[in-house]
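User: My collaborator sent over this chain with a note saying "see what the structure looks like." That's all I know about it. Can you take a look?
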Amino acid sequence: MTVAVLLGLEPKLLATPHFSWLENALATHGRSACLEPQDIVYVGLRDVDPGEKAIIQELGIRAYTMSDVDRLGIGGVMSEVTGYFEERDMDIHCSYDIDAIDPFWAPHTGTGVPGGLTLRESHYVTEALHNSGRLTSMELVELNPELHPEVDARQTTEVGLGVIGSALGRGIL
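Assistant: Without extra context I'll predict from the sequence alone. Here is the result:
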């Protein structure tokens, strides 16, 4: 939903009082959207609803599923991703959804689906973004330590902190 709003796909939502500030900011800059489809790259998709799938395909948003990760390896995927932004001479903002990681490693999310990124792959994504020299900002979303009280929340929290550390340049050597 957030990306749909930023792409300008939800004009009625922008017209509500809560979003008037965004509508006004866009109008001031002569724009109808904050993002263009070519500004977005998804990595690690595996559970996409039909509406999301249609939008990704119709708008030509670059997307790598877990099948692509299996086929190309996470190194190949991230080489393509960072190359894409290099070719476009664009900085990168990473919105890292913790549920991209397999719930075995990061169970404290509301939308965990088996078959996600491994612990190592999850770090490689942000290592590659850091190493590209184009990563300017990042957010980590969907980590909720209140969920799944039967599992120690430190596990998911440590995974999230590790991914952030990799984005900041913490490496093995």
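A starting point for your reply to your collaborator: The chain has two domains: 1-35, 38-167.
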